[in-house]
Amino acid sequence: MRKVFRRDGDSLLRLGGEAFGVLLPGTTLAQACDLAEHFRQELATEGLLLAGQRLELTTILGVGCFSSSHDGDADAFFKRVDGALYRAKREGQLPLNTALPEAHGGFSRLLF
């Protein structure tokens, strides 16, 4: 993760289990989606080397933009983005979903 999200101010977080988060201050939603897609591709290309064997890795990502007028606080924001992530997992087709406050009940999909 640090290879892709390496700017000063980028913060990597473990949210629990196999869930991780990245805070990208001063980043637009489009830029965050580009970085997320770059990370997904890097992970798929590099995989994981374990005991001399390369294992294939895949990921599903949820991306959101904090809106103080919509979210109010960080807990509401994380809940919204977490919802995008779990919707992506349920659908199982798209590797990246976004949580947008202004789109159809708080959720929108980006196709890559």
From TrEMBL:
GO terms for cellular component: plasma membrane. Keywords: Nucleotidyltransferase, Transferase. PROSITE patterns: GGDEF (PS50887), PROKAR_LIPOPROTEIN (PS51257). Residues 1-101 form the GGDEF domain. Its EC number is 2.7.7.65. InterPro entries: Diguanylate_Cyclase, GGDEF_dom, Nucleotide_cyclase, Rev_trsase/Diguanyl_cyclase. One of its GO terms (molecular function) is diguanylate cyclase activity. GO terms for biological process: cell adhesion involved in single-species biofilm formation; negative regulation of bacterial-type flagellum-dependent cell motility. Signal peptide: none annotated. The keyword Nucleotidyltransferase applies. Pfam families: GGDEF. It catalyses: 2 GTP = 3',3'-c-di-GMP + 2 diphosphate. This is diguanylate cyclase. It comes from Ectopseudomonas oleovorans. The lineage of its organism: Bacteria, Pseudomonadati, Pseudomonadota, Gammaproteobacteria, Pseudomonadales. The gene is ydaM_2.
